[in-house]
TrEMBL record:
Protein name: SGNH/GDSL hydrolase family protein
Region described as Disordered: spans on this chain: 1-29
InterPro entries: Ester_Hydrolysis_Enzymes, SGNH_hydro, SGNH_hydro_sf
Organism, scientific name: Georgenia yuyongxinii
A GO molecular-function annotation: phosphatidylcholine lysophospholipase activity
Ranges where the SGNH hydrolase-type esterase domain occurs: 59-235
One Pfam family here: Lipase_GDSL_2
Domain of life: Bacteria
Gene3D superfamilies per the UniProt record, alphabetical: SGNH hydrolase
Keywords, ordered alphabetically: Hydrolase
Signal peptide positions (record): none
Amino acid sequence: MTAGYPGRDRAGHRQVARTGHHGAMTAPPARARRVALPAAAGPLEGTVPGTTPALRLAVVGESTAAGHGAPTHETSMAGHLARELGRSTGRAVSWRVHGRGGATARVVARDLVPALDDPAWAPTHVALLIGVNDVQRTWRRGTFERDVLALLSAVVHRCPDARVVVSGLPDLRAIPALPRPIMPVLVAKARWMGATTRAAAVATGATYVPVDALSLPAGLISADGLHPSPAGYARWAAVLAPALIG
């Protein structure tokens, strides 16, 4: 996820754009400036114990896949989803993360999906987290339609035996770092992007999970005002898990 375009003040110093200035994506005022949080630390793979053979879960996508807002991947989407999958099936779950902050659907397809080709670790389950960057950057419907269809087609082609789930977007109005002046535009875009993603999922055999009713109040948003906290990831994972389990 990203929010805000950097600018410069009259002295030439770099700063975060203010809300409502020429329609720019914005961040809170200086007294409440957004804290930039890195991706989750630690290994990009792990295992939840259980019976064998282990299930293999790949979490792929933008900064929420990379775990921004969580200290480790154990407390990010990957760890929470793996534990949900393990609890429901009794199976061990081997998980891997392929995430990148700021990635759009096109970037995920081009740069991250090829990593799913590992013949020694063919995913049985894939969770795709995309959309917030596309909402802010992709303004042509046709462009997003092509990008999301290409992404889902690429994942299903590489992982023909996997259960592929793509998440919708949570309630954008509950994300403080997103710009208030153009929030109605972002919400409207999120709706048609959700419908487009659902259609692409139907066309490719993936499963779309709407989470627009998922609100992330203050305790479930991290210090940057943009990404979920560990508790927020847990709530989101609980919504995705039933579709992932099937």
